[in-house]
Batch of 4 targets.
Target 1
Amino acid sequence: MGKIHTYESLGLVGEARHLRLDAITRLARTVMDAPVATVSVIQPSLDRQFFSSCQGLPDALAAARETPLEMSICRYVKDSGHPLAIPDLLADPRTADNPLVLEHGLRSYIGVPIHVVSGQTIGALCCIKTEVCDWTDTDLETMQNLAACVDDLIALRSLQIEEEQANRKLRAIAGARSGFVAHISHEIRTPLTGIVGSIRLLDRMKLDGTAGDLVALLNRSALRLLDIVNDSLDLARMDSGTFRIGQQECDLHRIATDTIDAHRSAADRKSIALHLRNDLAAEVYLGDRMALASVLDNLFSNAVKFTETGQADIRLSNDSYGNVRIEVADTGIGIPHALQSAIFDEFEMAGPRIARKYGGTGIGMAMVKRLVELMDGEIDLVSQPGHGTTITITLPLEPVAARPVEQVI
C-alpha cells in the first residue's frame, strides 16, 4: 500500500501544466489517430472531471481544464476500474444525451484507468474521435501501455515526494543531533577545562614516584579527552552550518613549531625524531589560525601516535601555483590500501585492530578534511603499509609578509 498524496502534490490538479503527461497525450492522439486525448482525474467531492493534460479539446474547455461530472465519460472508467470502449457515443444510453457529446460532435470513445501507487483508480487516459470507430484489441492494448506510463509518472512523483519528506526529516534529525552534541560537548568542556587546569598545576609541582606518574597519566588522559570534546563540538558546529572560517594573520612557521612542541614528549617516549622544514616564500598568511592549528595538530598527533620508530615531519612549501603546501609525513605503520579511500569518512579508522590498539574516535581525519575544504583547499594521502604515510594539504592562502626561510629543527 503506497502513501496517500494529494492530487495537487502529484501535479495532477492545479494551474501548472505537467509536461510529461502532455507528451503522453500527444503520443496517444498521434498513434490512435484521434483528434482528442486527455488524462483526467475524477473528483466526486468537487463534482468535476479535471483535465491533468489535454490535447484537441475546444478552447473554452481546455482553458477551464474541468467539466462537471454529469458531462464526464471518464467517470465510468473510474467507477468500474476497467477499460471502456464506446464505438458510437450517440448510440450508447450512457452518453447519447451528454451535452458535451452533442455540443462538440463527439462520436467514439476509448478510455483506460490510471492509478495512484496504492492501485486505486483515480481517472482515465482517453482518446475521442468525431466519427464512429470500432475500437480493436490492439487499440485497447496501446492505450493500456500508455496508461501504464501515466501510472509510472505518478509513482515516480510519489517517490520524489517521499524522498523530499525523508530528507526534511533527516535534516531535522541531523540539526537536532548537532545541537544536542554541541550542547553536551559544551557542558562537558566547561568542567573539563577546570580539571585540565588543576592537573597542570599539580604537574608543575614535580611530584616524585607514583604520585608524579599518576599526575602525568591524568594530564595525558585529560588532554586527550579535551581534544575529543573539542573535535565533537567543532564537528557539530560544521553540521549545523554555524562554523565559519576566519581571516587573520597566521604565522605558519610558529603554528608548525607549536604543534611539534605539543607532541615532543610523546615522541620522546618512543625515541621518534621530529623535524620541521620550512621552504615557504612567506611565513605570514591570511587564514584561520585556529583551523590551521587544528588541522596540523590532528595530522601530527596521528603521525606520532602511529609511528613506533623513525621520525615524523612537517614540511612547509609553495607549489608551482603559489599555494601553500603542508606535508605531514611519518615512518609509521601506514594505512592498508583498502582503507585509504575511507580514512577521511566520519568515525572511520584504519581497521578494528588499529582502533583497539591506538584508540581514537575516528572523527579527527573527517574534521581535517572538512576544515581543509572550508578553507577551499585540497588534501591528498599517500601511504604504504609498514612504510609510513604522507598527507599533503594544499591551501590558497594569501601571503602577508615575505621572508625567505629554510629551517630544519
Target 2
Amino acid sequence: MFYLSRAEQVALFAILGLLVAGAGVLSHAKGQHSADTRRSQPIFVPADEGVDGQIVVDVSGAVAQPGVYRLHGAARVADAIERAGGPAAGADLAVLNLAARLQDGDKLVVPTRSDISPPAERNPSAGASARRISLNRATPEELQSLPGIGPVYAKRVVAYREKKLREEGRGFESTDELLNVPGIGPKRFAAVRDLVAP
C-alpha cells in the first residue's frame, strides 16, 4: 500500500487546492468575458414597416375579407381592396380614388351604395334636392359648374370626400361640411349652399 508522509500529504493538498482555485478563477473569468461579449452585441430591433418598404393597412367595409394587411410601400387603394378579397356585393368603388397611394397605418373603409346615397335618392319626394349636385357623387367637372368653384376647389372637395371615405367610411353628411374644405369660406359656401346636397 502506498503511504505519504505528513509533509507530502500537506504538499499534495496544497497543490490540489491551488488547482481547484485556479479552475474557479478561470471559469469566472470566462463567464465574465462571455457576459461582456453579450453586452457588446447589438440588441435586435425589428425594422419599421415604413423603412423596409412595406406598410400595414386596415381594410374594412364592403370587401370580401376585411382585416389588417401588409402591402408593399407603393400600394394603392386598388391593391388593398384586391388583397382583401375584392369588393363585396353592393360596394361602391366609384366614389373611391382607386389610384390613391396608401400610407402605413391607414384605415380604408370601402362604402356601399346605401352608405353614400344622398337623401334625395332615398326620398323621391324631395323634388328640389333631386336636382342638386351630390357632393358624394359629383365629378370634379360637375363641381366646377357651381359658382365660385374652379378646378382647384373642385379637387379639394373631392380630396376631402375621399379622405372621409377612407378614414370614416362615409363622405359628406351635410352641405355644411364644405366649410371644412380649405379655401371655401362663408361667402363661397353661401353661393353654392342651395345648389348642392350631401
Target 3
Amino acid sequence: MEKKILVSRQFPDKGIQLLKKENFHLTIWDKQRPMTQDELIEGAKTHHALMCTLTDRIDRHFLEHCRHLDIISQFAVGYDNIDVALATRFGIPVGFTPDAMSDATADIAFGLMIAVARKMFFLHKTIIQGQWGYFNPTGNLGMELNHKTLGILGLGRIGVKMAQRCRNAYDMDILYHGRTRNMAAERLLDARYVEFDDLLLKSDVLSVHCALTPATKEIFNGSAFKRMKPSAIFINTARGPIHHEKDLARAIAEKEIWGAGLDVTNPEPMQPDNPLLAMENVCILPHVGSGTIEARNQMSVLAAMNIIEFYKIGQIPHIVNPEVLKR
C-alpha cells in the first residue's frame, strides 16, 4: 500500500525530494501560515505519517484523533510541542533532527553575546533615527569579553559549540550546570560542573542551551536574576518559556544584570511594544537560530530519513522514544 505523508509546512526541498524518490504520496501544506490544529487533525486523519515542526500542537487533543499514525517526524531538534508520553502510549514513534542546527544556533548565541556587550542593535537604531552626532568619549560604552566566565545551562551539542567559540575567541573560563555531567566536554574545554546557584553567581555571560521541561520552565525569574552579577549578560537561544520575560525586563531596567540577547521570547511572537526592544543593552532576534541554508537543508533531510528508514527497515535514525520500536 502506498504510504501517505502529510507535510505540515513548506520544508526545504532536499528532504522532500528524498521522500518523492521513495514513491510516498505527499500532501504538502501550500500556505505560508502554519496549519491550525483543526486543519492538521483533518489532514492527518487520512495519512499514515506526519512531518511537522514546532508550531504544530501535537497534544492530547491531536493524538486522540490521530492515534492511527505510523510515525511523527519533527523538523526540529526540540519537541516540547509534542506530548511524547501519550504518543509512546499510543505506539507512535517520534523522530527529530538533532545536531543539524548546532553550529547555526551556536553562531546566533555567540553573535548575540557580542552584540549585547557592545550595544550593537541600539547603536544601529541611533543611526536610523538620525542621532549619530559628535564623538562622545564616555557615551554608549560597551564591555570586552576577554577572559570572562561563560556559564552554560545545558552543555549538550549546541552548548559545547558555544563554549568552544567562547574559549577560542576570548579564552573564557567555562562553567556549566545540567541534569547530567558531560565528562567529554569537561576534558575538551576544561569545563567545570557547578550547582545552578553557583552558575548564577559566577557567570559573566550565562547562555541557555537546555530543553524546556517542567523543571526549567521560567527557571530564570526574578529570584535568579537577583543572584546574577550586575555586569552579567543573559543569552537565551533555547526556548522562550525558560525565562520570565517581565522579570528579565525589570532586572535590566533596575541594573541587576547588564543586558540580554534573545533568539526566543516568552511568548512568541514578541509584541512590537515590548519594553525590552527599547533597551540599549538588549538584542532580540525572531527565533532564527536554525536559519541557515545548510542547517535547514540538513534538518529536512534528517526528518525525511526518519520516515524512510522507518518504513524500509523498521528503524528511525533519530528517535525521541526508542522504546516504541522495541515492542
Target 4
Amino acid sequence: MIARIVVLGGDGVGPEVTAEAVRVLDRVATRVGLELEFVEQPVGGCAYDAHGSPLPPRTLEACRAAAAVLLGAVGGPQWADVPVHLRPEQGLLDLRKGLGLYANLRPVVTTRALMGASPLKPEKLEDVDIMVVRELTGGIYFGKRGRDADRAYDTCEYTVGEIERVCRVAGRLAKERRGKVTSIDKANVLETSRLWRETATRVFRREFPELKVEHLLVDAAAMHLLSRPADFDVLVTENMFGDILTDEASMLAGSMGLLPSASLGDGGPGLYEPIHGSAPDIAGRGVANPCGAILSAAMLLRHSLGAREAAAAVEAAVAAAIEAGVRTRDIAAKGEASVGTREFGQAVIDRLP
C-alpha cells in the first residue's frame, strides 16, 4: 500500500530543508520496502501570494487525505502588513485546527559532539533527554481577540477536556520513558492555569499512578531548564508556554536547526516540522540546517507509518554524521569547516544502514 505524504515547503528556508527530508525518506523507504508518494502543496505566505489564503482549501483537503504531512516553515517580513487573519502563521494555526492536532511533541536531546555549540557549560548538558508535550489547539493563540484605538486583548481559554487529552499523551510517553512528568503552568496568577493544575493532578493520579509527577510555575521551569535540564523527562504545558520553553530548550542542543517536532491528534494524519522558523536572512543560500526537518521525517516514520526501525535508522544516520564532524554553519565551531544544506542531507543518506 502506498502512503501519501503531503509536503508543505512553505516560505524562506522551508522548501530547502524539506527537500532534504524528502530525499532521506525516499532513500530509507526504498531500503526497508515502504512505498511513499510525495505531493507538494502551498501553505503560508507563498500560498497567500498565489491563492489569497495562507491555507487554500485544496491544501487542507490534501492534508486530510494523506498518511502524514511534512512541513518546512512559514512567514517572513514581506507579509508583515497582511491582515492578521491572512498572515502566513494563521495558515499554520488553521492547519493544526483543521487536522485536530492537539499534542505537539518536541524532543530535546544533547550530544557530546555538539556540547560546544550550546551556550551552557558542558557539565549542565550531560544526559539531557527531554520530551516536551505542548497543547496545540487551545489557549491564547486561539482565544477571542480584538483591538481598537487605544487597547487590545487576547483571551486565553481552556476546557477540562482539552487539558485531559494532552495530559494523557504525556502520561503514555512517560510510561515508555523514565516515568516522570513535569506539568508547567502559572497557577499562582492565571485561572486557566489553576484549572490546568487541578485537571493534570487528577488525570495523573487516577490514570498514571505509577508516574512521578511534579508541578512547576512557568517562570521557575524556564530557570530550571537551564540550571538542571537533565532532571526532566516529559514536560507537559499549554500552548504559549510550550512555544516559548521549547525555543529556550533548543539552546541545550546547540541550535534551533537541530530540533524536530510532531503534531498529533486522535487518528488522522500527523504534521511533522522542524521547530525553527523560515529564516528569511539565509533563504535561498543553501546553508540552512536540515537536521530538524530530517529528524521530523524520522518522527513521521515512527508515529504515522509505524516504521520504528526506519525511524531509528534515520536518527542514527543523523547522529553518525554529526559525530563524524559534518556541520552546517549554525553548529560549526569558530574556524571549523561547514557544509551546505544539501551536503548535510547527503551525509545523512550516506550513513543510512
